[in-house]
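User: Hey, quick favor. My workstation is busy. Could you predict this chain's structure for me?
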Amino acid sequence: MDTLSEQALSAIKLGAQQLADVVTLPAKQRYLRFVQRVVETDEVWGLYRDGWALAKTDDGALVFAMWPASEFADLCAEYEWDGYEPQSFPLDDLMSDLLPQLEEDGVLPGIFYTPGDRGLTPTPYMLRVDLERALNRR
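Assistant: No problem, here it is.
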């Protein structure tokens, strides 16, 4: 194996290891990573197929699932979200359009679901406050 291929393989393994490391974090830590990452990249990821991927809480409230990167969303594109594809949208759209719409419709943001954990479901208002704080720090 040549050096370039070894480096490429190493980078792929590191990426997979980093992905696994983040996915196994507790929901609260994934939430903080979500806020940090979307503020850094100015983009949010959802799953889309003829509409955005939705879930429900144990008490039946609708949840709009969101991730900080396509790789994390793609991990959840199975079971009820089989056939859905990661799709990004700008952080500005989340702040100005989606969060007010979710609040109006009584839908919760579902932050950083993983195949084994539902993530956190803050109110749209709390997510907006946390994002605004992070935006003011950058």
